[in-house]
Specification:
271 residues, mainly alpha, 10 helices, globular
């Protein structure tokens, strides 16, 4: 493992540890105010965005091997899942929880506001870390002006469809593993995240998270703000919605109709 990768891993560990300590302290301090859940969203989304910025820099500037990049994606996803403590870090997730009445619509909107605020803060904080020149990659990135180029390598409609498919796949796994014990569930979710990053990363970066995309992709040159909104906001929202509607509404309805069609036949045979 190169020294640059080792430094980036140390940065990732530092981000997670600092975020976890901050999250615990704020949760305790705000326990009686009703604001602890919003603090959790702020810190967790900040953690997610900062780590993703560092991983993105490793892939784009460091040109690390795809296998290593996917391994780090998997490990980071597991760590996020184990440390978020109820936060979603994703506007689509907040809306899905509101749909399932886990919290109110107003609460969902406040959580989303916290997520985008954290995404903006991460976008401002990470260049400060890179500017310290902790590794050769950080120095090189600074010399390049922290520039990034749009990862969209397809037509906008195809790119939006890829983000939709990624969000659909991740949401489907999340929905069907709710009854699984948390320490096992995070690995299933991390596995599908790694899979969709492998499948769709070359086309859009496979972000499937509007807040994370706002932090990591929107500053990149090559596409307009509205084009990024179409791909990274509308695509994931439609993907999450289609998964929820398919497995919560359409599939149970088709199952009931199928059961009702077979019931008379079975009754006739028994008679």
């Amino acid at each position: 493992m190169s020294a640059d990768v080792a430094v980036s891993l140390s940065v990732l560990v530092g981000i997670v540890l600092l975020s976890d300590v901050t999250r615990r302290l704020l949760t305790r301090a705000l326990a009686d105010t009703g604001l602890s859940e919003y603090a959790g969203e702020l810190v967790s989304t900040f953690q997610l965005c900062c780590c993703t910025h560092e991983l993105k820099m490793l892939s784009e500037v460091g040109r690390i091997e795809p296998q290593l990049a996917l391994t780090l994606t998997y490990l980071a996803s597991v760590v996020h899942g184990l440390t978020f403590r109820g936060a979603t870090g994703n506007p689509s997730g907040a809306l899905e929880h509101a749909y399932r009445a886990k919290f109110s619509g107003g609460c969902a909107l406040w959580r989303i506001a916290c997520q985008f605020a954290a995404a903006k803060a991460a976008r401002a904080a990470v260049p400060v870390v890179w500017g310290m020149g902790l590794s050769g990659l950080h120095v090189r990135h600074k010399l390049l002006g922290f520039q990034c180029i749009s990862p969209i390598h397809a037509s906008l409609h195809k790119a939006a469809a890829v983000e939709l498919a990624c969000a659909f796949a991740v949401q489907t796994v999340i929905t069907h593993t709710r009854s699984v014990e948390e320490k096992y569930r995070v690995h299933a979710v991390a596995a599908i995240i790694t899979t969709v990053v492998y499948a769709g990363g070359r086309v859009t970066g496979a972000v499937f998270n509007p807040a994370l995309a706002f932090s990591t992709q929107f500053p990149c040159s090559g596409n307009t703000f509205l084009e990024y909104c179409l791909v990274y906001w509308l695509g994931p929202l439609l993907g999450m919605t289609s998964s929820v509607l398919l497995f919560d509404k359409l599939t149970p309805t088709l199952w009931r109709k199928s059961s009702s069609l077979h019931l008379p036949l079975q009754t006739k045979k028994e008679a």
